[in-house]
Structures are given as C-alpha cells and as structure tokens.
Amino acid sequence: MPPELAILSAVLVASLVGSPHCAGMCGGLMLFALGADKDQPKGRRIRLQLAYHGGRLASYLALGAGAGAIGAAIDFGGRFAGVQRAAAIVAGAMMITFGLALLARAAGLRTGRLRLPKPVTAMLEHAHRLAFTLRPTSRALAIGLLTALLPCGWLYAFAFTAAGTASPLMGAAVLGTFWVGTVPLMALLGAGIQLLTRPLHAHLPLITGLAVTAVGVYTALGRLHAPAMTPETLHLTDTAAVPMGPDCPLCHPDE
User: 134, 142 in Cβ contact below 8 A?
Assistant: First the structure.
C-alpha cells in the first residue's frame, strides 16, 4: 500500500474510533449552531448541518495545509543539520506523547490540560459572541469555521500528523480525512440521535490514547523506513564520472 494511502487510512480509522470525543467536545456548540428547536423543518436542519460541517471542513483543510507547510520547513531545516524527515520524527514524538498522556488519564493519573493563551481565548470568545448574533445558516457556518481554534488536543494531535507529511497538500488531505471520520457521529448527534456516546464515554481516554499513539508510531517509523533521497533513489548514478586521478587535465592546468 502506498505510504500516503496508509497514513490516510490510519487517520480515518482513528478519527472514526475517537469521534465520540469530538461529539463530547464540540457537541454543545454544534447543537447551538443548529438550533435547539427539534421541530424545525427537515430541510432547514439539513441546510444548517451542511453549513456547520462545511465550515469545519474549510477550517480543518486550512489547518492541515498550514501544518504541512510548517512540516516542510522543518524538513528543509533538518536537511542542513543532517536529519532526514525531521518533521515526521517531531510529529510522531508529539503524537505519541499526547497518546501516552491519554492512556495515563485512562489509568487514573492526573495529566495537564491543553490551554490556549488568554488573548487567543478572549478572541475566540468574542468571535463566538459575534457568531451567535448571525442568522441561523450564517451562524452555523461561522461556528464551524471557528472549530479549528478550539483547544482540542484530539484535533491538534492530527495536526501534528499533517505536519509530519511535510506537504501542504498532504497535510490538508490528512485533516480532511480526519473530518470525514468525525462527520457520521456528529451528524447523528445533530439530528437528535444519541449513538454509542454514553456507553463509550468512560472509555474514551483509553480508546483515543491507543488510536493516537498508534498513528504517532506510524508517522515516525513509517517515514523513517522510507528510502532517503540519495543519488541511487533519484537514479543519478548513471551520470558521467568526473576524472579525478593523476591524469586529470583539469587538476594540472599548466601541463
């Protein structure tokens, strides 16, 4: 299987498995974006769902592309330090750390929580207050667009995966795939259907911890085992040899 397809498949499975985390984290905001009136016309609820999830998709694609660009810069700098695929190593290590923290939490240990800087939190709160004043469809779209700014470790773990690809396009594909995995349960919740959220809630730290750790290991080791950019892999070994022996005319210009 091509490595790009393998990493996207791993992200899809992990996001499907961990989607109850998204329902718990963003469910309240999503229900507010869609409106509390469950008796509203079906067409309107579908339109609001499309606006909200479309906003989420746009913000995730932007986040993934930005993370991929940062990863490309890390790889570029790593080459000067003699480190190949530095972005994958850093991204994998960060994901493994986050996954182990979730597993520690599942074991009953106390771990830190992701917190945004106060200026960012204040800006996010102000943006949400403005979104709440908009008309229903615009409100749903705006709240969806703001999703990528929420302090969600689960989301940002996959942003690290996007960075590990060292490609804006592939990074966007990673978070786009992550979005695909979260939509089914979120859409059901938005339709007023509770599915598996309560039974799985107590086990979410264990489930998400295992999923993130597995993807983190693959991110680091998968690309580490990929062939490095050498003359052999670039098919440059058939270029003409440069004469460097004692008979080289360029080495003795006076002769």
Answer: yes
* Cα 200 to Cα 236: distance, rounded to the nearest angstrom: 54
Amino acid symbol at 83: V
What tens digit of pLDDT does each residue of 206-217 get? Answer: 777 777 788 878
Q: What distance lies between CA 156 and its chain's CA centroid?
A: 6
CB of 172 within 8 A of CB of 3? no
Question: Please, what is the Cα angle at 204 between 217 and 88, to 5 degrees?
Answer: 20
67 and 176 Cβ atoms separated by less than 8 Å: no
Listed residue (150, 122, 120, 134) closest to 59, CA to CA: 150
Higher model confidence: residue 119 or residue 66?
A: 66
Domain ranges of the chain: 3-224
Residue 92 near residue 217 (C-beta atoms within 8 A): yes
CB 163 within 8 A of CB 70: yes
0.85 surpassed by pTM: no
- Identity of residue 185: L
Read off the DSSP letter of residue 237.
Answer: T
DSSP letters along 123-178, please? HHHHHHHHHHTS-HHHHHHHHHHGGGGS--HHHHHHHHHHHHTT-HHHHHHHHHHH
Instruction: Give pLDDT, residue 192.
Output: 60
pLDDT tens digits, residue range 99-136?
Answer: 787 778 777 777 666 676 788 788 888 888 898 888 98
The structure tokens 């700098």 sit at: 77
Residue with the bigger pLDDT between 158 and 196: it is 158
Q: CA-CA distances (angstroms) from residue 177 to 61, 99, 126, 159, 195?
A: 10, 19, 29, 12, 21
